[in-house]
Amino acid sequence: MDSAPPPPSKNLLRFHRRRKLRLNETQIPVLTEESKRCLRNLSSYRAPKPRLQFPRSRMAAVLVALFVGRKGDLYVLLSRRSASLRTYAGDTSLPGGKVDPGDVSLEDTARREAFEEIGLPRDRKKVPLLCVLEPFLAAELIVTPVVVLILDNTLEPILNTAEVASLFSHPLASFLSTTPPFPSEPESEEVPYHRSFDVEATGPFSSKQMFRVHEFLTGREAGGIKPVFGLTAAMLIRVATIGYGREPDFEVHPPGAPTMDERIAWALVHRKVFKDACEKEGIDLGLARRIAGVDKDGRPVKTARNLKAGEGKGRRKREYKL
Questions:
Q1: Which residue segment(s) compose the domain that 92 sits in?
Q2: Cα atoms in the Cβ-side hemisphere of radius 13 Å centred on 154
Q3: Residue 131 CB: number of other CB atoms within 10 A?
Q4: What is the tally of helices (H) and strands (E) in the chain?
Q5: Tens of pLDDT, residues 151-170
Q6: Looking at the domain assignment, is residue 227 inside a domain?
Q7: In this protein, which residues make up the domain named Nudix hydrolase (predicted)?
Q8: Looking at the 3D structure of the chain, how many domains does it have?
Q9: What is the pLDDT of residues 262-301, one digit of tens each?
Q10: 262 found inside a domain
Q11: 267: closest CA among 137, 176, 159, 118?
Q12: Helix or strand or coil: residue 307?
C-alpha cells in the first residue's frame, strides 16, 4: 500500500515568528555601524510571496549563519564538504539539504541540517532567525536560504566528518567586493579574488540565454579549500546586497538574463526530475508554463514577450535583477 502523500508544499513557506532583534541587549561584541545596518536590513526583509507551487520532494534549504567578529564585522560560516561524498565532494558550501517528512518549515530544514552537519544548536534564542530569502534554482532542487545570527560566540562546532571536512568563515561584505579581505598568497597572485563566467544555455522562452556564475577566493586555497562558487556564491551575494543595502562592485547578471522565477518555471516544465515530482504531487504547471512562455506541450507560445525574447541572437534585451 502506498504511503500517504507529503503535506502540501505551501506549509514549508511558513517560518517561526521572529523575535525583535535588540542589538543593545544581545551577548554579541561591539558592532560597527555598518554591521548594525546590515542586521536591521536583514531582520526587516520579507521575501516576495512565491508565485509558483514547488514539489516538496525537490525542495531544500541552507543555513546562512552569521556571527560578529572581534572588530564588529559580520562573518558567515562556510564548510568544506567531505571528500567521500558522492556529489560536490570537497566543495565550499553552506550547511543544508533536502526537506525531510518531519520538517514543517524551510527554517526547520535549514536548522536541522546545520545541527546534523556542524552541531549548530537549534536554540532560537542563541541563534535567532533574521530572514528567509526567495528560492534559488539548483540542478535538481529548489533551494531557499535561511539567514540566522549566532549570538553566542562560545559555541563549539561538532563536525559530522562523513559530510563536513572542515569549517571556516568569510566576511559577508566581501561578497560585494572585487578586493580580497586577506593578503594574497604568492601562488595565487595571478588569480583575482572575484571572477565570473557567462554560460549559454536554453532557458525561458525557448531561447539561448546567458547565465552568470560567480567565484570568490577564500584565501585558504593553499590548504585545499576551494573558492566559493556557483549557487553558494549567488546566495551570499544576495544576502550581502540586502544586508548592506548596496549593489556589488560587479554586475551580478548579464544583460537580458531571465529572472529566478522564470528560471524555476522553466525547470518545472522541462527538467524531468521536477516534472515527475510535480506530477506525483499533483501540482498544476499551468502558471509555470505561462511564466516560462510555453504551451502544455512545452512549445514556445507566440506572444509579444516571446518574440522580444528571440531578438538579438536569442537574448532578451531588458535586464533583470534577482
A1: 33-177+191-301
A2: 1
A3: 21
A4: 8, 11
A5: 988 888 999 999 999 999 99
A6: yes
A7: 57-193
A8: 1
A9: 999 999 999 999 999 999 999 999 999 999 888 877 777 7
A10: yes
A11: 137
A12: helix
